[in-house]
What does this fold into?
Amino acid sequence: MKLTKEEILEYQQNKPPYLMIDLVEEVIPGKSAKGYKYLDPKEWFFKVHWPSDPNMPGMLQIESLVQMCALSLLTLPGNKGKIVYITSADNLKFKRKIIPKDRLDIETSVISFNRGVAKCKGIGKVKGDLACSADFNIVLPHVIKEYKIK
It folds into this structure.
């Protein structure tokens, strides 16, 4: 399954300028997602994150991994358009600057998903070189709610 920017907006709730992915080249629901973000020189964060040395902030790099991986869960039946939150991130690594005109290629996988909680992994590459990586947990509150004791 591939998703254009318009289709991405149908599946998840982040909107420009906070949408950190442009195209999803492949989604395997419940398992993985990969695609990219093109870093247009006009991106809002380049103007404020070191104007004399513009680069993509590390937390936005992680956000791009999370948004991509979230689509692995949002493409499962009943999840389209639902909210996804990150609850933790570990093993954050930033190996190189991501600068205007770079393309951040993103690959993510769901390690486990149970009762609305997913353990995930993601990497971002620029021109084939590792730029960032992280392990993180995301949750779907509407699924968790189903398992609450009443």
In short: The CA atoms of residues 31 and 80 lie 16 Å apart. The mean pLDDT is 97.
